[in-house]
Design a protein that fits this description.
The complex is a heterodimer of chains A (about 80) and B (about 200).
Chain A (H helix, E strand, L loop, with lengths): L6 H6 L1 H5 L5 H13 L1 H22 L6 H10 L9
Chain B lengths: L8 H5 L3 H23 L2 H18 L9 H24 L33 H13 L2 H12 L4 H8 L3 H31 L1
Helix pairs in contact in B: 2-3, 2-4, 3-4, 4-7, 5-8, 6-8, 7-8
Classes of the chains: A mainly alpha (about 80), B mainly alpha (about 200).
Bound molecules: zinc ion (ZN).
Chain lengths: ~80, ~200
């Protein structure tokens, strides 16, 4: 890809771009395109925010409700080993 | 996570109950969350949780240790969740395959409201959190499982591809589609919040 990046091309590289694993030359092309294309800038910003919001969700500790834990241990015959 | 220092595969294979209990302690929460995000139903998620560890217990003998224990457990859990979804679908809608079709317009950006600048508390309301959960349920299953593993459970592209037995290129394609799909859904939701604040 050389010269101008079109909106469609940008879309294909978007995951790599927001994950920070896109090569530098492509990043610069994307940034140049975003400076001239407000819609793509919004897409990138809101995509980042979307991923961020779900990451926040995943930061909450993954704990089992205690009844679910109890039933799991009973089913596996592990009651004796259950931590309090 | 450095599971090697925590869990002894040797002990697991010898049927050490204490060690199996530690494996359960370590991963049950993550398996349950994965199932809950995939199925959106606590009882179904519990089924997947129980079946995952039951199968793990039954097949630990044949686990060769080529992948990590967590990858192996995630693979069992992902398969259990997808199987349950498939079974439910064939019960509910005989012959209706539309739920898993790829519609290109779901990925093409259609909404260009910039909602990033909403105040932080707007994203923390119960209603917004529900909107996030609902948006995941709108994803086709094939995309949902990739998104949940990569962006919620935090697996790498490589780990996700190993869990699902897909190429890394396929994982990347599905992840991109899932993210764009979610961005569209959330944009329609948060657009209203932006409008409310302006009025
Ligand atoms: Zn553009």
């Amino acid at each position: 890809m050389s010269g101008q990046v079109r909106c469609q091309d940008l879309l294909a590289s978007l995951s790599d771009y927001v994950d920070g694993v896109l090569d530098e030359a492509l990043c610069r092309e994307i940034e140049a395109h975003m400076a001239a294309c407000p819609n793509c800038r919004v897409v990138v910003d809101t995509l980042r925010k979307t991923i961020y919001l779900y990451h926040q969700m995943s930061k909450e500790p993954a704990t089992l409700p205690s009844v679910v834990q109890e039933r799991l241990y009973r089913m596996l015959h592990l009651d004796d080993y259950r931590k309090l | 996570m450095d599971e090697a220092s925590v869990i002894s595969l040797e002990a697991l294979k010898q049927g050490d109950r204490q060690e199996f209990a530690r494996l359960v302690d370590l991963y049950a929460g993550q398996v349950y969350r994965l199932a809950l995000k995939m199925l959106n139903d606590p009882l179904d998620a519990e089924d997947v949780l129980q079946n995952t560890f039951l199968k793990a217990l039954q097949s630990i003998d044949t686990f060769e240790g080529r992948s990590s224990l967590s990858t192996w457990l995630y693979r069992i859990a992902a398969n259990e969740a997808l199987m349950l979804l498939r079974r439910q679908r064939s019960e509910v809608s005989l012959g209706d395959s539309s739920s898993d079709d790829d519609h290109d317009d779901e990925y093409t950006p259609r909404e260009f409201t910039d909602w990033c600048c909403l105040p932080e508390e707007e994203f923390l309301t119960a209603e917004s959190r529900q909107a996030l959960d609902d948006a995941i349920q709108k994803l086709p299953e094939k995309l949902r499982i990739v998104f949940v593993l990569r962006d919620i459970e935090g697996l790498s592209i490589e780990e996700t591809s190993r869990v699902l037995g897909l190429s890394e290129a396929a994982v990347k394609t599905r992840l991109l589609r899932a993210r764009l799909h979610l961005r569209n859904t959330l944009s329609f939701y948060f657009r209203e919040r932006v409008a409310e604040r302006k009025s």
